[in-house]
């Protein structure tokens, strides 16, 4: 029986993780659940899964949640996420909250020697070197939940002694694949939120449309798999069946494939190193008679290039990129700026914020906070 | 340093294995080489690689080889293959001879506790159950060299505890993919020998054109990976980039991919469990913008269906199928019968020869010999 705490249980990954847990009651027990705002769903989940602890980070909802769950310990505030990950009976922490806010609880979970199911890519984008070193020092496994990283992780099982030559991260290309800058200048929030293959939250769906998601994934992959920038290549594969590929130094490539369904990498991360039987839809070649591939268009989709620049320069630049991106995506979702202006703001932040080559955790947190302020100023100006 | 004996060093797999060994002189030493007829090439190879023993199975060439290699032990005849595999200093036997003649030396190698690089698929087609049990009993690793089986083997590394749900063997479809029976009735040897993707020997190239090769591979896979007939599916993939696929019980699939080049699985088998850096051509997505997939046409390509029937019924039926096939391919290559008549003869042999549910090794050897006689009679009749 694995005792699991889920940070962000009401989001897309969180709810699907609970689906997996519900289907495997003999394997998993929910130890804690946390949510930011969605008190109603959190209460419903807690009544079903009976965790020992529940956290609602937004304090406005605290009394409501507390009153609804009299037999469960209920906390509120961001610091309460630290209390959740440190619960002694937790074996595994699924970090399914969105954004740089995931960094501190993930670090706390690693220090508490909990294995991590990493669905918060910002943790590694912002502070990958520090987090991976900490995990190594504490003997903690970090099992990726992003479908691309899960694919590479699955391909590397049993290949621990064999160096990676390169990886291919596959990208669907999003709803605007093949479109040029003129088209992108006019796209709406509604169009950007229509992802062709994956059902995900709003932030990651916009990141997929702008290819920033693939850039963040590249940085995440760099740290997860200890790669140099030139060992990471993005290939556009609109069908999203091949989830990513590893090429070894003998020239052989291994790929992980399947129907695009986030439940599969979640299920894998929970069960690892075992695989547990599932009733998920199986892939059928007759439904997908062709897989196609093309280069990513970094001229039209500048976010991808910006992310690779941030990855190559390192230091706090990925942190700047990520913080600026969180602000511009929110601004785009609020119709404050256009699709292409997102890249403008990110680029200006990257060129303006102070570069720190060897940041401490405090440097990261300050960089994150300062970049958000500056990016918000730029958004207001552009508006 | 791995000491390697190659059975069939002058064939397609044998010469490519020597290319790999030549490129890695610090890893591999050639301990013995054998050939059937090609005395000149065998002599040339022996002068370069200086093995301890050389065998020419066709006795007509014995004196020539012996005279050319005064400082090497030279033997002749099929029984000499047994002496080769039993050489105490051999670590690894690459069985690269074609046909059921590979069975006896492979069994002898297993009893002598040598790890096997299996490029002779007939060994498992004819007597898979017996051979795999013997390997298990003797603690011998059987590492497949066929690209499809190497692909599956590579995908299973580190997944030993995780059951296979099914495998997909990919098939190029050969030179006659998409053709109907009327077309197949008229094809010539020359057309059948033009394989679109792989450079291989004549026998296996004809088997690829008739899809018998995929049927034999399915039977080989059944025994190598302990599968039921309904766990093995053939999918036509004309580009031959995905070399085969494993689907696990969680629904996740792993595939091995690369340029179609037999040197890669040979290199893998020699180096296993390590991967050794190679300078082979790397795969490039820009050269292959689409992978396509379709069902195999077992109505036009009856050999594939016959092989699945033999696999399902088991006993000595795969041995009958294989022996009949060896005869008809030879007859087709000698312009004695047409392309479709190959299936007619195989089917008649399968319906006529005595079925033995639990054959002994002698039963297999007798079945093989008797089927060849009967198949030859049928060829003569059809001629």
Major β-sheet of chain A, in short? 7 strands, parallel
Number-wise, the strands of chain A total 13
Q: What global shape of chain A is seen? A: globular
Q: Supply the CATH superfamily name of the largest domain in chain A.
A: NAD(P)-binding Rossmann-like Domain
Q: What's the number of structural domains of chain A?
A: 3
| Largest interface: pair, residues per side | A-B, 49 and 50 residues
Oligomeric organization of the protein chains? homodimer
Text of the CATH class of the largest domain in chain A: Alpha Beta
SSE order of chain A, one letter for each helix or strand: EHEHEHEHEHEHEHEHHHHEEEHEEHHHH
Alpha carbon gap, first and last residue of chain A = 52 Å
Which regions of chain A contain 5 or more consecutive residues with pLDDT less than 50?
none
Average pLDDT of chain A, rounded to a whole number, is: 96
Given the helix and strand composition of chain A, which structural class is it? alpha/beta
Q: What Rg of chain A, in angstroms, do the CA atoms define?
A: 20 Å
Fold and architecture overview:
- The structure is a homodimer of 383-residue chains.
- Chain A has 383 residues and is of the alpha/beta class.
- Chain A has 3 domains: 2-144, Rossmann fold, CATH 3.40.50.720; 147-261 and 286-313, no CATH class; 315-383, Orthogonal Bundle (Rna Polymerase Sigma Factor, Chain: A), CATH 1.10.1740.10.
- Helix content of chain A is 46%, strand content 16%.
- In chain A, the strands form 2 sheets. Chain A has a 7-stranded parallel beta sheet, sandwiched between helices.
- The longest helix of chain A is centred in the C-terminal third of the chain and has 22 residues, at 361-382.
- Chain A is globular, with a radius of gyration of 20 Å.
- The model of chain A has no long low-confidence stretch (mean pLDDT 96).
- The interface between A and B is large, with 49 and 50 residues.
- β11 of chain A pairs antiparallel with β11 of chain B, so a sheet runs across the interface.
């Amino acid at each position: 029986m694995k005792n699991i705490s889920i940070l962000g249980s009401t989001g897309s990954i969180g709810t699907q993780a609970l689906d997996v847990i519900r289907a495997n009651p003999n394997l998993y027990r929910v130890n804690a659940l946390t949510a930011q705002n969605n008190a109603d769903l959190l209460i419903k989940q807690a009544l079903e899964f009976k965790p020992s602890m529940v956290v609602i980070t937004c304090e406005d909802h605290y009394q409501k949640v507390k009153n609804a769950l009299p037999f469960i310990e209920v906390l509120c505030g961001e610091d309460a996420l630290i209390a959740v990950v440190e619960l002694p009976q937790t074996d595994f922490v699924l970090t399914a909250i969105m954004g740089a806010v995931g960094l501190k609880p993930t670090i706390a979970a690693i220090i508490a020697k909990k294995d991590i199911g990493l669905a918060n890519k910002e943790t590694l984008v912002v502070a990958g070197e520090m987090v991976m070193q900490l995990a190594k020092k504490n003997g903690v496994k970090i099992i990726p939940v992003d479908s691309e990283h899960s694919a590479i992780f699955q391909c590397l099982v049993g290949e621990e002694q064999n160096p990676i030559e390169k990886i291919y991260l596959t990208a669907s290309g999003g709803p605007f694949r093949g479109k040029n800058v003129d088209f992108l200048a006019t796209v709406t929030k509604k169009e950007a939120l229509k992802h062709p293959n994956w059902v995900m939250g709003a932030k990651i769906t916009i990141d997929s449309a702008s290819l920033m998601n693939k850039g963040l994934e590249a940085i995440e992959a760099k740290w997860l798999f200890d790669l140099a920038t030139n060992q990471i290549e993005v290939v556009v594969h609109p069908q999203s069946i091949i989830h990513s590929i590893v090429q070894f130094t003998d020239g052989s490539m291994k790929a992980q494939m399947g129907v695009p369904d986030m439940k599969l990498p979640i299920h894998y991360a929970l069960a690892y190193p075992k695989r547990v039987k599932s009733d998920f839809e199986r892939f059928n070649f007759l439904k997908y008679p062709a897989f196609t591939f093309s280069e990513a268009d970094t001229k039209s989709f500048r976010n991808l290039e910006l992310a690779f620049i941030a990855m190559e320069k390192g230091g706090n630049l990925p942190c700047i990129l990520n913080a600026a991106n969180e602000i511009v995506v929110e601004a785009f979702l609020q119709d404050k700026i256009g699709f292409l202006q997102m890249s403008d703001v990110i680029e200006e932040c990257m060129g303006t914020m102070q570069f720190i080559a060897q940041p401490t955790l405090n440097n990261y947190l300050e960089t994150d906070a300062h970049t958000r302020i500056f990016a918000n100023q730029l958004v207001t100006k552009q508006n």
